[in-house]
């Protein structure tokens, strides 16, 4: 692969190869001396047109740990504010010969479009409601390390599925790895094409969580609700918020996940989120750096191979 635009383009082998390498980087990241040289001499530009804490910080750390020259474009201070288009901005940066472009954008499809215009590898750091591939990969690595496998697990994804690129990428990845997926949430927050996903759908947490191995909670994404259904937080927590009592329906060893940013007391009880016996939320953040190191390492290897094929 030349780019990492979505889980849709990956097969089981691609996913396993990436997670195996990420596992090695996860071990490196726990050493006092964390540096590798897989990206030495390469230039990585991070372009975030939408807010981010975890994704931007981990892509920056991942690039620096592997020796890349990393630049974070301050998009709020860029010439986008003067009317320059996304494509003109990308072409301008492309002329500076970057090797890796990491892009987050509020519009679905914007990152794919940009990838067609530049000469370097593009990594999708989240585009609208479409895909967030490195999030699904870090979730998969977290599950594989906690459960010892990434197949034949029963996994519940709960809450605002309709507006979630995290849910879309996870449904594709976990489906490709042959897991059973349940979606739980209010019908108004289910995507209209849910019948095509090959998943079970529930409106009731007690029913949907019964005997699952993994519970993945999602934030209510109000910024993408464009005036439609916005539930009251109290009522939403009562019906769909995860707490110790609702988690009681899942397997005794079920793990609790959340991609962040989380809203405590809305989709998840704060005490449960902090319970290290059940919650792997901090592990997800840790695995985020390892997965992004692996993704950029593999794309850089592909880029070197393609460049030497052209040269020879
Ligand atoms: N999970 C995630 O994408 O978090 P950020 O929006 O903080 O990057």
Automatic annotation (TrEMBL):
<feature type="binding site">
    <location>
        <position position="165"/>
    </location>
    <ligand>
        <name>L-aspartate</name>
    </ligand>
</feature>
<dbReference type="InterPro" id="IPR006131">
    <property type="entry name" value="Asp_carbamoyltransf_Asp/Orn-bd"/>
</dbReference>
<dbReference type="GO" id="GO:0006520">
    <property type="term" value="P:amino acid metabolic process"/>
</dbReference>
<feature type="binding site">
    <location>
        <position position="104"/>
    </location>
    <ligand>
        <name>carbamoyl phosphate</name>
    </ligand>
</feature>
<dbReference type="InterPro" id="IPR006130">
    <property type="entry name" value="Asp/Orn_carbamoylTrfase"/>
</dbReference>
<feature type="binding site">
    <location>
        <position position="132"/>
    </location>
    <ligand>
        <name>carbamoyl phosphate</name>
    </ligand>
</feature>
<protein>
    <recommendedName>
        <fullName>Aspartate carbamoyltransferase</fullName>
        <ecNumber>2.1.3.2</ecNumber>
    </recommendedName>
</protein>
<dbReference type="GO" id="GO:0016597">
    <property type="term" value="F:amino acid binding"/>
</dbReference>
<comment type="pathway">
    <text>Pyrimidine metabolism; UMP biosynthesis via de novo pathway; (S)-dihydroorotate from bicarbonate: step 2/3.</text>
</comment>
<comment type="similarity">
    <text>Belongs to the aspartate/ornithine carbamoyltransferase superfamily. ATCase family.</text>
</comment>
<feature type="binding site">
    <location>
        <position position="261"/>
    </location>
    <ligand>
        <name>carbamoyl phosphate</name>
    </ligand>
</feature>
<comment type="function">
    <text>Catalyzes the condensation of carbamoyl phosphate and aspartate to form carbamoyl aspartate and inorganic phosphate, the committed step in the de novo pyrimidine nucleotide biosynthesis pathway.</text>
</comment>
<dbReference type="GO" id="GO:0004070">
    <property type="term" value="F:aspartate carbamoyltransferase activity"/>
</dbReference>
<feature type="domain" description="Aspartate/ornithine carbamoyltransferase carbamoyl-P binding">
    <location>
        <begin position="2"/>
        <end position="144"/>
    </location>
</feature>
<comment type="function">
    <text>Reversibly catalyzes the transfer of the carbamoyl group from carbamoyl phosphate (CP) to the N(epsilon) atom of ornithine (ORN) to produce L-citrulline.</text>
</comment>
<dbReference type="InterPro" id="IPR002082">
    <property type="entry name" value="Asp_carbamoyltransf"/>
</dbReference>
<dbReference type="GO" id="GO:0044205">
    <property type="term" value="P:'de novo' UMP biosynthetic process"/>
</dbReference>
<feature type="binding site">
    <location>
        <position position="219"/>
    </location>
    <ligand>
        <name>L-aspartate</name>
    </ligand>
</feature>
<feature type="binding site">
    <location>
        <position position="55"/>
    </location>
    <ligand>
        <name>carbamoyl phosphate</name>
    </ligand>
</feature>
<feature type="binding site">
    <location>
        <position position="135"/>
    </location>
    <ligand>
        <name>carbamoyl phosphate</name>
    </ligand>
</feature>
<dbReference type="Pfam" id="PF00185">
    <property type="entry name" value="OTCace"/>
</dbReference>
<dbReference type="InterPro" id="IPR036901">
    <property type="entry name" value="Asp/Orn_carbamoylTrfase_sf"/>
</dbReference>
<dbReference type="Pfam" id="PF02729">
    <property type="entry name" value="OTCace_N"/>
</dbReference>
<feature type="binding site">
    <location>
        <position position="54"/>
    </location>
    <ligand>
        <name>carbamoyl phosphate</name>
    </ligand>
</feature>
<dbReference type="InterPro" id="IPR006132">
    <property type="entry name" value="Asp/Orn_carbamoyltranf_P-bd"/>
</dbReference>
<keyword id="KW-0808">Transferase</keyword>
<feature type="binding site">
    <location>
        <position position="260"/>
    </location>
    <ligand>
        <name>carbamoyl phosphate</name>
    </ligand>
</feature>
<feature type="domain" description="Aspartate/ornithine carbamoyltransferase Asp/Orn-binding">
    <location>
        <begin position="153"/>
        <end position="298"/>
    </location>
</feature>
<dbReference type="GO" id="GO:0006207">
    <property type="term" value="P:'de novo' pyrimidine nucleobase biosynthetic process"/>
</dbReference>
<comment type="subunit">
    <text>Heterododecamer (2C3:3R2) of six catalytic PyrB chains organized as two trimers (C3), and six regulatory PyrI chains organized as three dimers (R2).</text>
</comment>
<feature type="binding site">
    <location>
        <position position="82"/>
    </location>
    <ligand>
        <name>L-aspartate</name>
    </ligand>
</feature>
<dbReference type="GO" id="GO:0005829">
    <property type="term" value="C:cytosol"/>
</dbReference>
<keyword id="KW-0665">Pyrimidine biosynthesis</keyword>
């Amino acid at each position: 692969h030349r780019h990492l635009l979505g889980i849709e383009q990956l097969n089981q082998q691609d996913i396993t190869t990436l997670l195996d390498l990420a596992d090695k980087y996860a071990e490196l990241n726990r050493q006092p001396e964390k540096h590798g040289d897989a990206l030495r001499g390469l230039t990585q530009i991070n372009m975030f047109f939408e807010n981010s804490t975890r994704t931007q910080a981990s892509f920056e750390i991942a690039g620096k740990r592997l020796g890349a020259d990393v630049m974070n474009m301050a998009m709020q201070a860029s010439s986008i504010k003067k009317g320059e288009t996304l494509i003109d901005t990308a072409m301008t940066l492309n002329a500076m010969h970057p090797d890796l472009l990491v892009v987050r954008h509020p519009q679905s499809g914007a990152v794919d479009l940009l990838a067609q215009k530049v000469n370097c590898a593009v990594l999708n750091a989240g585009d609208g409601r479409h895909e967030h591939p490195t999030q699904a990969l870090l979730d998969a690595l977290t599950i594989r390390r906690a459960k010892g496998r990434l197949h034949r697990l029963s996994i519940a994804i709960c809450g605002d599925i309709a507006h979630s690129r995290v849910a879309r990428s996870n449904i594709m990845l976990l489906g490709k790895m042959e897991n059973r997926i349940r979606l739980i949430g209010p019908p108004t927050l289910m995507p209209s094409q849910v019948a095509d996903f090959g998943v079970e759908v529930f409106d009731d947490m007690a029913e949907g969580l019964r005997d699952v191995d993994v519970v993945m909670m999602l934030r209510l994404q109000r910024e993408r609700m464009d005036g439609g259904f916005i539930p009251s937080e109290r009522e939403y927590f009562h019906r769909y918020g995860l707490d110790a009592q609702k988690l009681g329906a899942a397997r005794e060893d079920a793990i609790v996940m959340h991609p962040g940013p989380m809203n405590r007391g809305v989709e998840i009880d704060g005490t449960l989120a902090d319970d290290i016996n059940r919650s792997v939320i901090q592990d997800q953040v840790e695995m985020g750096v390892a997965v992004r190191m692996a993704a950029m390492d593999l794309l850089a290897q592909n880029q070197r191979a393609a460049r030497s094929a052209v040269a020879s």
